[in-house]
Amino acid sequence: MDPRRPRWQSLRLIVLMSISVGLMIIDHRSENLSYFRSAVALAVKPLYEMSALPARLGAWVDRASRSHMDVREQYDRLRGEQIVLKSRLQKLEALEAENRRLNRLLAASRKVGEEVLLAQLVEVSLDPFTRKVLVNRGVRDGAYSGQPVIDPDGVIGQITHATLFTSSVTLLTDQSHAIPAQIRRNGLRVVVYGLGVPDRLSIPYLAQDADIRDGDILVTSGMGGRFPPGYPVARVTEIVKDPNEPFLGVTGMPVARLDYTRDVLLVWQVVPDDADPAQDEPDTGNGQAEAASDVAVQGANDGG
Amino acid sequence: MQISADTTGPRVRGWIIPISFGAALLLMAMPLPTWAVPYRPDWVGIVLIYWCIAVPHRVGAGVGWSVGIVMDVMQFTLLGQNALSKTVLGFLANQSHLRIRMYPMWQQCTAVFLLLSIDIGLVTWVHGVAGNIKVGWSAWWPAASSMLIWPWLFIILRDARRRSYIC
Q1: Can you tell me the distance from the alpha carbon of A180 to that of A161, in angstroms, rounded to the nearest whole number?
Q2: Is A27 within a domain?
Q3: How many domains does chain A divide into?
Q4: Which residues span the domain enclosing A147?
Q5: What is the ipTM of this complex?
Q6: Phi, psi torsion values for A117, nearest 5 degrees
Q7: Per the domain annotation, does A25 fall within a domain?
Q8: For position A137, which CATH number holds?
Q9: How many domains does chain B have?
Q10: Which residues in B lie closer than 8 A to residue A130 (C-beta atoms)?
């Protein structure tokens, strides 16, 4: 036995194990540890930065070596796209206003608008059994645990831990994730579960005679109050009808490009003071990052 | 905790341990292509094993716990999950350091595989207790890949240790 080794090895082991188990229990049941998490996250930030260095270098080289012609071409294409989108936006704004008027006539309570903030992926989960990503917006920017996260194509997931400067987002495909949705075609309510594998979702508990077809688009139903209604979630890709099973075996694919996107949007649900929903945004980060009132933009992107 | 013979050595002496753990965490955070992610070796685990058997009076369960906590934060897992498994890993490697030191390389590799299997087993238990996460046999791939990395890592770290006069 090495005389320099510290004594009470087993006691230390037991103490440390108890601390770990205690931490896990606290972390599993409450949010109390988010400050601790923030502090450690801040301390290891340089490591994250370093690990992202090769990718960033690649992006820089790519940008530096792109020719003037390419940029020109892309500029023209994007301009064209912008004009198209803008024209669609006009129509949508008119429709939105009309919708609001009609809603008021009906005295409907669903007058919830949404505000968004652009965020960037900093890091993808290192644990192969969880499907999570880290984004560069945190409590400081108004992000909160349970906040919906979308990309231009559809829902990506929700924030599960918001620290001061960053938040971790659990993706739709995570095994612990479920999202209430409905079929856009007929409004049938379903719950979409993640499977823990990329690009596959499960839609269980549908009766054998349920009206669901290959290619159906599922959108958020707004049930549970966490996700705003109407955002695309998944496309049905496979329906297995086995008479021996009580339910249909339905699999879907996320509409959002979970594994490819870099820019995502955090969504806040705000109740507008009738006139202009863009006015009462409480939490804005820095000016250039925030997009304006975004339901319209969102509609324009997936509408056409 | 330095011995008198060391005092003439270069200044990097004690730093090689934190530096190697930093590098291991960096390798854990490095983006990999999707197909390769399940095979990523447990860099932190093998570096921890190495230091536990090389300098058992410095590195053990306590260091394992600290590195584990950092890993938990970096991987957004349940806080304490990796801390628990790395504590146990550090303790076991520390306890059996005399035996593992004596082994020929292939037996060392087997020992590393076993130690990491215990580590992974603890993590999967925690997964099972905490939620509905099902983990298949693929969870054990990192133990196998780490076992293959071990001989090289052992040589590199041994050189680094000798050069920085840690004993």
Answers
A1: 21
A2: no
A3: 1
A4: 113-304
A5: 0.82
A6: -140, 130
A7: no
A8: 2.40.10.340
A9: 1
A10: 75-77, 133
